[in-house]
Design a protein that fits this description.
- The protein is α+β, with helices and mostly antiparallel strands.
- It has a domain at about 35-195.
- It is about 60% helix and about 10% strand.
- The protein is built from seven helices and four strands, in the order H-H-E-H-E-E-H-H-E-H-H.
- The protein has helices spanning about 5-65, 80-90, 115-125, 155-160, 170-175, 200-250, 265-290, and strands at about 95-100, 130-140, 140-150, 185-195.
- Strands 1-4-3-2 form a four-stranded antiparallel beta sheet.
- Helix 1 (about 5-65) packs antiparallel against helix 2, helix 1 (about 5-65) runs antiparallel to helix 6 and helix 6 (about 200-250) runs parallel beside helix 7.
- The radius of gyration is 40 Å and the shape is rod-shaped.
- The relative contact order is 0.12.
Length: about 290
């Protein structure tokens, strides 16, 4: 096995090891960035829903709520407005969802799933917490959920205190069985934004592959430069010395010396070889005179 082959095998081993180490170190870092990107996107969507709720409660509800006893308008409900505005995004991106769930909802469509009920119970047990981020596995891949508590205020009690206090139009729409008995400052539900993580993780994987490709590309460039340098600085001079040594050993006449200037190891080897050759030729001449 030649010197060049040994060098290339060594470089190949170092390149593969470096790529593995880089991938192992970069994967958690890039996945962490991807997760943070998803969290920030979730917060933006949550704030968008909060904006729809605020606008509805402050601008729309006062207008549509004037005849609430005679006519119930769901458009005056802030939760309804937030859900309907998010439905536009959900239509284009079905994997993105926004839910407002309650343990005792007026609309039974707002009943929580088991994992959503766990979030509501967590907020009830930890009233100081105003946001929770968790991940869960689905058949479509990992999904990140950002949740915030729904806490009862005075406006909520206008409809959710007792059936007797509730607007007649709301009772006609939903009945008196559900969504009552709420208490002021009680956590009754949660706003939950769910965002798939597969897209962000796929981008992180693409970035990882790109950087590994750049790393290997740089390594290939260095390997080519090293091979050229090895041929000019080491292999070429050594092969020349080998050819001269072979000619001398075969007794060929008029084999010139190999002159190489410099102070590196190859130049020292060439100088040593030339001295040895001259010494050998002088010894042979002295033997021939006897």
């Amino acid at each position: 096995m030649g010197l060049r082959t040994k060098l290339n095998l060594l470089l190949l081993g170092v390149a593969l090891l470096g790529a593995l180490v880089f991938a192992a170190a970069a994967t958690p870092f890039l996945n962490g960035l991807a997760r943070e990107e998803v969290v920030q996107s979730s917060r933006i969507m949550m704030e968008s829903a909060a904006g729809a709720r605020t606008y509805t409660s402050e601008q729309v509800a006062p207008l549509l709520g004037r005849d609430i006893n005679a006519h119930f308008h769901p458009q005056a409900v802030s939760a309804y407005a937030a859900i309907k505005s998010f439905a536009v995004l959900h239509a284009r991106f079905p994997d993105y969802s926004y839910r407002e769930v309650a343990l005792n909802p007026t609309n039974l469509d707002d009943r929580p799933q088991d994992w959503e009920a766990d979030i509501v119970q967590y907020f009830r047990a930890n009233p100081s917490q105003n946001e929770v981020v968790n991940e869960r596995q689905t058949f479509r891949g990992p999904v990140l959920s950002l949740s915030r508590p729904i806490i009862v205020d005075a406006r909520c009690l206008e409809c959710h205190d007792t059936p007797a206090r509730a607007p007649a139009s709301m009772l006609a729409a939903y009945g008196p069985q559900h969504g009552f008995g709420w208490r002021a400052n009680e956590t009754v539900g949660a706003q939950i934004v769910s965002v798939p993580m597969s897209v962000a993780f796929a981008r992180a994987a693409e970035v990882r592959v790109m950087f590994i490709g750049l790393f290997l590309g740089v390594f290939v460039f260095l390997a080519i430069v090293l091979n050229i340098g090895l041929g000019l600085v080491v292999i070429g001079p050594v092969m020349t010395l080998s050819r001269i040594a072979e000619d001398v050993s075969l007794g060929k006449a008029d084999v010139g010396e190999y002159a190489r200037k410099g102070k590196d190891q190859i130049a020292i080897l060439v100088a040593s070889f030339n001295r040895m050759r001259r010494s050998l030729e002088e010894a042979m001449r002295m033997l021939s005179k006897r």
